[in-house]
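Subject: Sanity check before I submit

Could someone independently write out the C-alpha cells for this chain? I want to compare against mine line by line before I put it in a report. The sequence has 418 residues.
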Amino acid sequence: MNEIPKLNLINSMKEYEHAKTLIPGAVAGIRRPYNFVEGEYPIYFDTGKGGRVTDIDGNEYIDYLCAYGPMIIGNRETEIDDAVIAQIQDKGFCFSLTQKYQNMLAKKLTEIIPCSEMSVFVCTGSDATTLSIRIARSYTNKKTILRCGYHGWHDWCVEVKGGIPEKLWEDVHEFEYNNIESLENSLKANKGDIAAVIITPFGHPLAMEMEEPKPGYLEKVKELAHQYGAVLIFDEIRTGFRVSMGGAQAYYGVTPDLAVFGKAMANGYPIGAVTGKAEIMKECEKNVFISSTFFPNSLSYVAALKTIEILERDNILGQIWEKGTYFNNKIAELIDKYNVGAHISGIPPMMFITFDKDEEKQYKNKRTDFYTQLIRRKVFLQPFHHGYICARHTQEDLDYTLKAIEESLLYIREKYYK
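---
Independent answer below. Compare away.
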C-alpha cells in the first residue's frame, strides 16, 4: 500500500488543547474532531480563498465542505466583500430603525422563489425553521408538527435532547423520506391537530446516503398536507440557491406554502429567511412576535443582494451543475472500478461518498481509512456529511481530487481485499 505521511497538525492540536480550558468541547457541535477523523483532520482554519482553505499549520486544502454549505461562489469574493465594506464605511448597518435593503431583498425573493409573496429575515437557518413553525401554529391554531429531515438545533427539532423538557418536543413527530405510508400514518394518528408538515425536499439525512424524491412523492406530500389542513413547509436551507435559483421547489416543480432559505443566499454572511404565501406570512403582523437586535442589520442583506446578482449574471449554478456532473460521474466510474463497497449519492451540486454497511461493520473502518487518505492528500471532505461544489472549484481542483479519490480507493482495496 502507498502509505502517505500524516499531515503536520501541531498548531491545530496545541490550539485545541488550549481551547478545552476555555470553551466546553473546545469547538461547537459538528466542528468537533470526532465528527471527522480524530488526529488526522485540522481543527482550525486560518485563511480561505476561492475553493481552497488553509489551516493554522499552513496546510492548504481543496475545500468541498464549503463551510457546511454557505460558500456557493467561493471564499473572499471581492465583489461581495466590497459591497459589504462600502456599506460599513459609507452608510452603517446597525440602527434603531430598518434600512431599505430588506425590502429590496424581499422583492428579489418574490421574483425567483415560486412560493414567495412575503418574507421575514433572520440570522440563521435554525431561526428560520423555528419561525416557520411558529407561523404555521399561529395560522392553523394547531400544535402538532410532522417533520422529515434536519431542521436545526432549537428545542423543537434538535436530535440531542439534553436540557430540553419533553413538553417542548412531544408534539413533533418524524416521518420517513420517500415513504408516503409513513407520512399517512402520522397524519392519521394526529388528525385534527396538525399545524405543519416540514420536509427537506431533497433528502440529506445525517451520515446517510442522499436521496432525490421519487416521482410524484413531493406532489403527494403536498396533497396530503392540505387534505389534513396543515401548512406545507419546505426546508430549503441547503437546497436554496444551490439546486436552482428558486430552490428545490422550482427544480422539482412543487410549490409549498412556506419555505425557509439560508446558507448560500449570502455566500457566507449570516442570514436566514422565511418566505411564502402572504395570507400565512401576515400572521407575523400581530399574532407572531419576532424581535432581535441583529435581524435588521443590513450587511447580510447587502451581501445576499450582491450574491444573487452574481449568481444570475454569471450563470453560477450552471457552472456548478456542469462541474458537479463531471465530478460525480468520474467518481462513480472509480467506485465501479475498485469495487470496495463505496457508493456515491446526491446530485451535481451536492455529493456524498459512503460505504455499504456490512454485518462485521468493516464499513466504519473503510470510511475512516478512506477519509484519512483523502485529508492527507489535502482534500477536505467530511466522513459524516455530504460535500458541495462551489463556483471557484477549478478543473485542476476536480482532477486532482479525482486522483486522490482513486488512490484512496486503491488503498482500501489493497488493505481489505488482499
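---
OP: Matches mine. For the report I'm noting this point. The chain has a mean pLDDT of 97.
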